[in-house]
Design a protein that fits this description.
Number of strands: 12
Number of helices: 10
Distance between the termini: 39 Å
Shape: globular
Largest sheet: 9 strands, mixed
């Protein structure tokens, strides 16, 4: 039997048992807005990865919209907090657990991708906790019970965009139907994060919302993958810009031509504090 990677954040960042996860998803789902993409036309999205209390409703909106894509066989998930000098990561075998049951890794696709690019290979027993990807998995399992996943940690460099394109090209060669998700939060502002160029108070919150976060959101909506990476490295307004850029590039390779913002908020909107984080949900459509 293949090894199963444990859910490190279940019971803390999101509910730890099946019933509570299902109830949370159903509550988020009832409050979700309509999807801006026509049925069968959504191929990817950008999701946040804070605890569900802060941003789970936004991630749910995106992944629920992706459920209109039909019956994809594989969900490609880019994530991980990396810097330009980081190695990339891949999990190429086994499964990743969720309170709703495990999600199997698309090992055949992973093996083909690893032939072309260098990765640090994680296994179920040799891996680091990673909220950027794990926080999405219960949503994926709920809406796509039989889907496989390919989780990739990707650094914020131009090479990552080539990897994203090739993963999709290889999947097409293998006749895989695929969707893609990029996981990133936006500006981490305040003393807790060592970044407060506009001081404190409401003026700082407004600057994050209407200036710093808006700059990177506009680039995502323009589907400017390299622009997102460059912007985030200059202004600290996306914590996983490699993942966001790679998801944009993969979505374009899948045929996406349009991007729509579903929802934006900050942790300040949920619990006001001098340190806070921005979140956005975006979908990519044919």
């Amino acid at each position: 039997m293949k090894e199963i990677r444990r859910s490190d954040f279940a019971g803390s960042w999101y509910p730890g048992n099946k019933g509570d996860v299902e109830r949370a998803i159903e509550e988020f789902s009832h409050a979700a807005g309509s999807c801006p993409c026509d049925e069968g036309k959504v191929v990817g999205g950008i999701v946040p990865h804070a605890g569900w209390y802060f941003s789970g409703n936004i991630a749910l909106n995106v992944i629920k919209c992706l459920a209109l894509s039909g019956m994809p066989e594989t969900c490609l998930i880019f994530g991980r907090h990396l810097h330009p000098g980081s190695r990339n990561y891949i999990m190429k075998d086994g499964s990743w657990d969720t309170p709703l049951g495990p999600l199997k890794i698309d090992s055949e696709l992973a093996a083909e991708v690893e032939k072309e690019f260098s990765f640090t290979v994680e296994t179920a027993s040799a891996c680091e906790p990673d909220n950027t990807i794990e926080l999405q998995l219960p949503f994926i399992k709920y809406f796509f019970p039989s889907i496989d996943i390919l989780p990739i940690g990707i650094s914020p460099v131009s090479k990552s965009l080539e990897i994203a394109r090739r993963v999709v090209q290889i999947s097409k060669r293998m006749d895989r139907k695929m969707i893609v998700i990029g996981s990133t939060d936006l500006t981490h502002y305040g003393v807790n994060y060592g970044y407060s160029p506009m001081g404190t108070g409401k003026s700082a919150v407004e600057w994050v919302k209407n200036k710093n976060d808006k700059r990177v959101i506009d680039l995502i909506l323009d589907m400017d993958a390299m622009g997102v990476i460059s912007e985030s490295l200059a202004n600290q307004n996306a914590c996983c810009s490699g993942a966001a850029g790679a998801a944009i590039e993969a979505a374009k390779e899948l045929g996406a031509e349009k991007a729509f913002q579903i929802k934006y908020s900050t942790s300040y909107d949920v619990r006001p504090d001098n340190s806070f984080v921005g979140y956005v949900g975006i979908v990519f459509c044919l």
